[in-house]
Amino acid sequence: MSDSARAVAARVVERVFEEGAYADRAFRGAAHRLDARDRAFAQQIAYGTVQRVRTLDHAIQTLGRRPVRKLDPPVRAALRTGAYQLAFMDGVPPHAAVHESVELVRAAGLERAVAFTNAVMRRLAEGLPGLLERLHEETPAAAALLHSYPDWVAEAWWRELGADEARALMRAQNEPPETAVRTPEGPKVVGSVPPKWIESGYAWPQSRGSQLAGAAVGARPGERVLDLCAAPGGKATQLAAAGAEVVAVEKHPGRARELAENARRLRVELTVVNEDALELPGDLGEFDRALVDAPCSGLGVLNSRPDLRWRAEPLPELQLDLLRVAAERVRPGGTITLAVCTIHRSENEDVVDALALPVEDLGAHWPEYRHPQRPELLLTLPHVHGTSGFFVARMRA
C-alpha cells in the first residue's frame, strides 16, 4: 500500500476495526512519512471515519446492498473512508473520493472487488445526501444511528440528561475539541500549541475540564497529597505546582517513567511510585488529601479519542475500590476527590453515594459548573462549557 494520505487513513481504519488498535497509536505508526499537509488530511479522514463509522456502515449497507461485515477488510476500509469524505468533507470532490477508494482496493491486490467498490462508491456519491437527510434524532436509537454512537450511550444520556441535552451532547462530541493548555498564568485556550511551550515546560496540554478537576482537590502549600492514578501527570504536576507534597502512583512502568519525565520538564517536585494503586506499600504514610482520577468509560472525551466510543466500558466497581484505598490513606478530616472524564451516572453520582462519606459543596465555589441534578457536585459538559466532560466530587474522611 502506498504512503498517500488516503492510504494511510484506510490503513488506520482497518487496524482499529480489524486488529483492535488504538487510533492515535495506529496513526502515529502509519503517518510518519507524510508531510504536514498530507498528515493533517489523513488524520481528518482516519479519525472522522472511526468516529462516524456506524452512520457510514448504515449508508454502505443500504446503498451497497451487501452487509459490511461480509466485505474483505481492505474493501471495508476503503468504502468507509470514501463514504466519510463524501458525507462529511465538503472540500473533497466526489469523483476524487470515488476514484481513490477504488485505487485503494486495487493496490490491496483485490482486483475482483474493484468493480464492486466502484459501483458502491458511485451509489454513495449520488445517494448519501438524501439518505442522511432521512435520518432523525427523535429517539435514542435514531439519534445513535444519526450521530454514530452505541445505543447504550445514547440511552444513558437520554435517561440522565433528557432528550434535548442528550442530542446536544452527542452533536458536540462529534466536533473537534478545544485546544487548551495549563500555564503558570492559568488556563489558556489556543488554536494550536507551539512545541517550544511543551519542550520548555512553560505549558502542559490539559483541557479546562481537567484543570478544574485538579483545582477542586484544594491542595495547599505543604500538604501531603496522594494521586492514585497519576500518569501522564497533568493533575499531579498541577497539585505540585500549587505547593503540595505529591506522591503520584502509576501502575505501568513505562507510564511511570513518562510521568517522572513530565514532572522534570515542568520543573516541579513529586514522588513517583510505580505500584498498583490497589496494592500500595504500607510505608507511604498518611495524607491530607487524595485524588482519584479513576479509569472510566471516558464518555466526556469522545471527541478527542475517536475510537473510545466503540470500546468504552463503565468501571464503577474499580472506581469504588480506588476510593476506598484513598480513604484508608487520608487522615481524619482530610479529603478525597473523585475526578472522572465521563458523563454517566453509574460512574459518577452512584459511586459517590456508595462510598457514603460526607460530600463537600464544590458547587458553591464553581457555580458555573454545578451538576444539573446534584449542585454540590461538578459536571462540565462539552455542549455547555466547550471543554471536556468531567465529573468531580470532593468528600471528607
Task: Give a nutshell description of this structure.
By secondary structure, the chain is of the alpha/beta class. It has helices at 5-19, 23-30, 36-51, 53-64, 73-88, 94-107, 114-134, 140-147, 151-161, 163-172, 195-200, 208-216, 234-241, 253-265, 308-311, 316-329, 349-355, 382-385, and strands at residues 179-183, 186-190, 204-205, 224-227, 245-249, 271-273, 287-292, 330-340, 378-379, 391-396.
Explained architecture:
The chain is α/β, with parallel strands linked by helices and 397 residues long. It folds into three domains: 5-135, NusB-like (N-utilizing Substance Protein B Homolog, Chain A, Orthogonal Bundle), CATH 1.10.940.10; 137-172, no CATH class; 182-396, Rossmann fold, CATH 3.40.50. Helices cover 49% and strands 12% of the residues. It has 18 helices and ten strands. It has helices at residues 5-19, 23-30, 36-51, 53-64, 73-88, 94-107, 114-134, 140-147, 151-161, 163-172, 195-200, 208-216, 234-241, 253-265, 308-311, 316-329, 349-355, 382-385; strands at 179-183, 186-190, 204-205, 224-227, 245-249, 271-273, 287-292, 330-340, 378-379, 391-396. The strands form two sheets. The chain has a seven-stranded mixed sheet, sandwiched between helices. A three-stranded antiparallel sheet has the order 2-1-3, with no helix packed on it. A hairpin with a 2-residue loop joins β1 and β2. α8 crosses α9 (151-161), α12 packs across α13 and α16 packs across α17 (349-355). The longest helix is centred in the first third of the chain and has 21 residues, at 114-134. The radius of gyration is 23 Å and the shape is globular. The protein starts with a helix and ends with a strand.
